[in-house]
Design a protein that fits this description.
By secondary structure, the protein is an alpha/beta fold. It folds into 2 domains: 4-322, Thiamin diphosphate (ThDP)-binding fold, Pyr/PP domains (Rossmann fold, 3-Layer(aba) Sandwich); 329-358, no CATH class. 41% of the residues lie in helices and 9% in strands. It contains 11 helices and 9 strands. It has helices spanning 23-48, 62-69, 85-90, 95-103, 137-150, 169-181, 228-243, 273-280, 284-294, 300-322, 342-358; strands at 4-5, 77-79, 126-127, 157-162, 185-191, 194-195, 198-199, 220-224, 249-254. It has a 7-stranded parallel β-sheet with strand order 1-8-9-5-4-2-3, with helices on both faces. A hairpin with a 2-residue loop joins strand 6 (194-195) and strand 7. Helix 1 crosses helix 2 (62-69), helix 4 (95-103) packs across helix 10 and helix 5 packs parallel to helix 6. The two termini are 32 Å apart. Bound molecules: thiamine diphosphate and magnesium ion (MG). Residues 162-164, 192, 194-195 line the site of magnesium ion.
């Protein structure tokens, strides 16, 4: 494994950090991580009580998401994975907008035609719709980055994926194109220990993931993914290189998924208890809290206030999302064609007529087989 960059020390100080996060930005990182935890907790309860179909826990990996997002501009392009809630929240996406997607309601930007946790936003950041087939978004991100170079912009494109994602065809073709074209892309591989129940060691025969960069002619960096400052610095340096026209970087962030893969699996069946406990001691929220404390920026009162605020914000988001109606059936064909082809229009009319005569299909029981 290439040497791992880690900056927040045991006592919470970070003497080697040379990135540009202000006190205000650090507090924003911390609040965002608490907001992700609140969003996660509430979504888990919503799923268990059958009010939404599916969710994906982020506990343990918030440091990587927030460290990366805080190093980029809101005008940059984000091609996230499904476990990147913190990137959107850091840049000011409202929890209510995310909750609309969880419910697939009329307020959802995809009008309920995407899975839950497959967010997409145009404002306040360019957050591209998540691809369910693993790894397919890497070539898409490289294409978008190539286009921004052709337009003469200094935009950076971040594409985030898991350790499991490195086994996809998209990983190899994406890195290859970006290397050849010297595209301004940051490949963020979140090595969180697992791809569903496949341990990261079972995913590759190479010595870590960052080393794979060498074959595609770009730098490969390994960073402590539970250390917000280390991720921030690594991504900021990669972004500077990209903006200078020096091409892509592969960053492997070492982190750990402290929950299940999704609401559909039981991690106690395959995650060793001792391994989970060892990583719980390296919790990225505690790590950043220690750093804030060492700078005089944290107190028990602040913690209590932030936890309360985040919980209230997400609860309000649920109320807002639940009050929205389902998307109109007629939206099934909207946003795809400028003018809907005749054969689809006819099929649509038949389906809408049937729905008008027979009413809605029976509601499901909330189970989702993924
Ligand atoms: C092409 C493809 N194969 C399999 C799946 C099923 N699947 C969904 S998530 C996942 C694991 C991905 O693991 P990783 O890339 O490490 O991301 P993580 O869930 O750990 O964040 C798999 C195999 C899929 N969605 N797409
Ligand atoms: Mg993984």
């Amino acid at each position: 494994m290439t040497e791992m960059m880690s900056l927040i020390t045991e006592d919470g100080s970070a003497p080697a950090y040379s990135g540009g996060l202000s006190d205000e930005a650090l507090l924003r990182c911390y609040r965002t991580m608490l907001l992700v935890r609140a969003f996660d907790d509430i979504c888990m309860k919503l799923q268990r009580s059958g009010r939404i179909g599916f969710s994906v826990p982020n506990k343990g990996v918030e440091g990587t998401q927030v460290g990366a997002a805080s190093a980029l501009r809101s005008t940059d392009l984000f091609f996230p994975s499904y476990r990147d809630f913190g990137m959107a929240l850091y840049h000011g996406v409202r929890p209510a907008a995310m909750m609309n997607n969880m419910f697939g309601n009329a307020g959802d930007s995809a009008k309920g035609r995407q899975m839950p946790v497959h967010f997409s936003f145009v404002d306040p950041i360019k957050y591209f719709s998540i691809s369910s087939p693993i790894g397919t978004h890497l070539p898409q991100a490289v294409g978008a980055a190539y286009a921004s170079t052709l337009r003469g912009e200094d935009t950076v494109t971040l594409v985030s994926f898991g350790d499991g994602g490195t086994s996809s065809l998209g990983f190899h073709s994406g890195l290859n194109f970006a290397g050849v074209w010297k595209s301004p892309v940051i490949f963020l591989c979140q090595n969180n220990g697992w791809a569903i129940s496949c341990p990261s060691e079972g995913q590759t025969a190479s010595d870590g993931y960052a080393i794979k960069a060498k074959a595609y002619g770009m730098p490969g960096i390994t960073v402590d993914g539970n250390d917000v400052l280390a991720v921030n610095q690594a991504v900021a340096e990669a972004a500077e290189r990209a903006r200078r026209g020096e091409g892509p970087t592969l960053i492997e962030a070492h982190t750990y998924r402290m929950g299940g893969h999704s609401t559909s699996d039981d991690p106690t069946k395959y995650v060793p208890k001792e391994e989970l406990e060892a990583w719980a001691a390296k919790d990225p929220v505690l790590r950043l809290r220690r750093h804030l404390d060492s700078r005089g920026l944290w107190s028990e009162d602040l913690e209590a206030r932030l936890v309360k605020e985040c919980s209230e914000e997400v609860t309000a988001a649920v109320r807002e999302a639940e009050a929205q109606p389902a998307p109109a059936l007629e939206t099934v064909f909207s946003d795809v064609y400028e003018s809907v082809p005749d054969h689809l229009r006819r099929q649509g009319e038949q389906a809408f007529d049937l729905a008008r005569r027979k009413g809605d299909a029976a509601a499901g029981d909330g189970a989702f087989p993924l």
